[in-house]
Amino acid sequence: MSTIQVRPIKIGLVALTVTTVLAVLAACGGGSEDKAQSLGERVQPLAAGTGPTVSFAPASITMSANPGSKQDIPVVITAGSAMSNVTVNVPTALKSVLSVAPASLGSLTSGQAVTVSIKVAPGASEALHTLSGAITVRAGFAATSKTLPVSLALVAPESINGIAVPPEPPKELNDLTLAGFDLNANGVRDDVERYISSTYLSSQKRVAVLFELGQANQESLLAAKAGDRSLAIGATRRTDAAVACLNYVDPANAASIENRLAAIERNTKQRWIAIAQLQKLLGGVGLSIPADKKAMCTFDPDSMPN
């Protein structure tokens, strides 16, 4: 008659760990193998492209900026399905040059659209190079199926007519908002600034007065959008002063120069809408070009050689 040998069961660290985990699960209302497996599934991060769906508008961001400059870019995120605990995440490769606000979006219903701001702000000492990465959206631990590719080239300021100007803004991003790009925060839209500097590079006087006109026109549009009549009146009076100065600097060509600048500034539907809002705000306000046009200049045009 044969005998059956029973091997002793070794209770070691692994068995103790499993027992401990099951005891914790039991204390939390769980304890079964199925519930332990469910917990493991809940904490397992999902790879990008396998989770809930979203879309981005714009679908990507490609731009140049100078170190020390700043620019906010609105991005609309639309949920393709209901999601909760939604966060917007910046990759490590881009964290030194941009951030997102708000980064936490809470819960989104299917089809709901929210706008976040991509805040581009490279430090003044940031090296000149190109950074690339993809901004992701997560619902809890699940990454969504699409990402927002970002490519940011850090470049030195370009010099036009001895004026340091920001890089040419990408048209799609520049036209997303009424204000457009103003990387150097001088109050003149970057594409307008580059136009003035390159078109009138032979005349310091015209460049100086057109910068003032560009600033005043931009202030007027933003005041109109805000519905602030007081700010709109003040900005429009600064516009009139700049126009008066331009008529002193170049009386023969002032009207055509002003019209060409306006065509550059009012290049989208929302900017034309702001012009209409401005005119409505200014109803009943008398504005005119003063007789002493030179006095309206904030600089001495006669001291400039050309």
Task: Provide keyphrases for this structure.
disordered N terminus; alpha+beta; 8 helices; 306 residues; Immunoglobulin-like; 4-stranded antiparallel sheet; 6-stranded mixed sheet
Question: What does the secondary structure layout of this molecule look like, with pairings?
Answer:
Elements: H1 13-27, H2 33-43, E1 54-57, E2 61-65, E3 71-79, E4 83-89, E5 98-101, E6 104-108, E7 113-120, E8 130-139, E9 142-143, E10 148-154, E11 158-160, E12 163-165, H3 171-174, H4 190-199, H5 204-226, H6 229-249, H7 254-265, H8 269-281
Parallel strand pairs: 2-10
Antiparallel strand pairs: 1-3, 3-7, 4-6, 4-8, 5-7, 8-9, 8-10, 11-12
Helix pairs in contact: 4-5, 5-6, 5-8
Short description:
By secondary structure, this protein is of the alpha+beta class. Helices cover 36% and strands 22% of the residues.
